[in-house]
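Researcher: Here's the sequence for the chain we discussed earlier.
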Amino acid sequence: MPQFKVNVKWGKQKLSADLTTEESPEVFKLQLYTLTNVLPERQKLMLKGAVLKDSWEGFRVKNGASLLLLGSAEALPKEPVVQTKFVEDMTEDELNCAMDMNTGLDNLGNTCYMNATIQMLSTVPEFSAALESLPANNLAASISNLSGVGSDPIALGKKITNELGSIMKVLAAKDQISFQPFLFLQYIYKRFPQFAEKNDHGVPMQQDANEFFSELLRLCQDNLPPPTDGASNSRPSFVDQFFGIEYNNTLKCADEAAVDEEPTYSKETSIQLNCFISQEVSCFVCCIYILLFYLVVVSLRPFPSSQKH
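Model: Thanks. This is the structure I predict for it:
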């Protein structure tokens, strides 16, 4: 196989290369590309006035021959503005964002009832967006004045609703693995002291999620602006629009003497449906959306950490 050592002059540079005439000139040009970064289609090789074409025919090559290379080098790729980061180098928060995983809520002492309710509400896009549109509480001022927060239920209700909107923004961003709703919990304790009860060891007691859900929805009823999509005539608030239940009542006297008495009809609205099994036992059936949450959302999009509730 005829193989030659040749010199290649490119601008002010002098390069050495191996040339084999039994291979296509494209192979030699690729070798020069690795040395000069000049693309093969931009290269023009000359030897004693002869221009290299698609073959070595007429191109008299020998050891030590000096070839002239004409052509501008391809610009080197710029360094990326955002550095590539591999999964193994990511923090838990960065991994949570990259994997599009839900942000969880840390348990602040038997607060599963609160965390589950908030996470359920965050899956209602319109309701969550309405909460996010509320003005955020001044975090630094709120923390410093926490002990001095009054007991005015109206003012506390607004603070709770606004803080719930801030939590919704955190959950929607998904840029951290978990979040501590400390300020929200303190407002809840102020507004609803029953949720602040502790056992003999000073540990917060378990609370009823149904009761918390009902109280939170009532606050949202009072503090969320009415919907602006034309539904305000029949549904006066976001809570009524997305969680309201309307049912018909028929009241008829069971006394045989009043068999001819006409029944009375009425309509009622509520955000919960109470099912009374007996005089001693009654159960709460959450609104339809909660049922869908547990049947669909939890099964399809589980929260990634055991710390999340």
